[in-house]
Specification:
globular, about 25% strand, about 240 residues, alpha+beta, FAD-binding domain-containing protein, single chain, 3-stranded antiparallel beta sheet, FAD/NAD-bd_sf, oxidoreductase, FAD, 6-stranded mixed beta sheet
Length: about 240
C-alpha cells in the first residue's frame, strides 16, 4: 500500500532469497480482501484462492461431529484459504525489484542508522519492526517481554494424502478439520499442493520442547521416540 501511494519504503529481510525456506500452510483471507482490492491485487488473489478451503469440520475428542460446513462450488469467496507461498509471491511480484533487500539480518538501530549482522549499515526515517515475538526492534520502545503460557504446538505433514492415505484424506475433507477439548487440540488443514498439515497443541511446562527428549530436528528419530511417549511427552506407555 505504501508503494501504491508513492511512499518510498524498503523491507530488510533476513532470508537470503524468497526461496530460502518454506512458508508454511494455508491462510484464510476475510477482511484482508479489502486491502488486496485497494492494492490492485484482488484479481490475482482470486486466481490463487481456494474456495473449497472454506469447508470446516469440528469434532469433540470422542469423535462426535459438532459442525460440518461444506462449501458449494459456486459459493462466494467469503473466507477462502490461500497457500502462504502463493500469496507471498503475489505480493512480492507487485513490488519494484529492490523493495525487498534479502540477506539483511537486523542487529541494532540508533540515531537513524540500521546495523546488520554482516556489518552493513543503512539510514532510515521511520523504522517498523515486523520480526515476531523475539523482536529486536521492540526493545527500542519497551522492556516488555513475551511470556510462555505453557502451550506448545507440533506440526506434522502428510504429503500427497489422496494417494498415500485416502482414508485420512476423506476424514479431513477439502478444508479444515478440528478436534478440541481438555485443553488440547488436533487440527488438520488441506493445502493446495495435496499436502495435509496437522497441528497438535497441548499445555505443558514452558521448557517441554527442550526436556521432552524428542529430537524434533530429526523427523525419523522423533517418530521412533514418540512411539514410546506418554501424552505428556515423557517416556512411558504409547500414545
Amino acid at each position: 500500500m505504501l508503494h501504491v501511494h508513492g511512499i518510498e519504503s524498503v523491507v530488510y529481510e533476513r532470508d537470503s532469497s524468497r526461496h530460502a525456506r518454506g512458508q508454511g500452510g494455508m491462510l484464510d483471507i476475510h477482511s484482508g480482501q479489502q486491502a488486496l482490492r485497494e492494492a490492485g491485487l484482488f484479481d490475482g488473489f482470486q486466481g490463487i484462492a481456494r474456495g473449497a478451503g472454506q469447508d470446516m469440520r469440528l469434532l469433540e475428542p470422542d469423535g462426535t461431529l459438532l459442525l460440518q460446513e461444506d462449501t458449494p462450488d459456486d459459493a462466494p469467496l467469503d473466507r477462502p484459504e490461500v497457500d502462504r507461498a502463493d500469496l507471498r509471491d503475489l505480493l512480492l511480484d507487485s513490488l519494484p525489484e529492490h523493495t525487498v533487500r534479502w540477506g539483511h539480518a537486523f542487529q541494532s538501530a540508533a540515531d537513524g542508522v540500521l546495523r546488520f549482522a554482516d556489518g552493513r549499515t543503512e539510514g532510515y526515517d521511520l523504522l517498523v519492526g515486523a520480526d515476531g515475538a523475539e523482536s529486536r526492534v521492540r526493545p527500542l520502545l519497551t522492556d516488555a517481554r513475551p511470556v510462555h503460557t505453557g502451550q506448545n504446538t507440533i506440526e506434522l505433514g502428510i504429503p500427497d494424502i489422496d494417494r498415500t492415505h485416502p482414508d485420512l484424506a476423506a476424514m479431513v475433507g477439502r478444508g479444515n478439520y478440528w478436534v478440541l477439548g481438555d485443553r488440547r487440540s488436533l487440527s488438520a488443514q488441506r493445502n493446495g499442493d495435496g499436502r495435509v498439515r496437522v497441528y497438535l497443541s497441548f499445555h505443558t511446562g514452558a521448557d517441554w520442547l527442550a526436556t521432552s527428549g524428542i529430537p524434533f530436528d530429526d523427523p525419523a528419530a522423533a517418530r521412533r521416540a514418540c512411539s514410546t511417549c506418554s501424552p505428556t511427552g515423557t517416556r512411558g506407555s504409547p500414545r
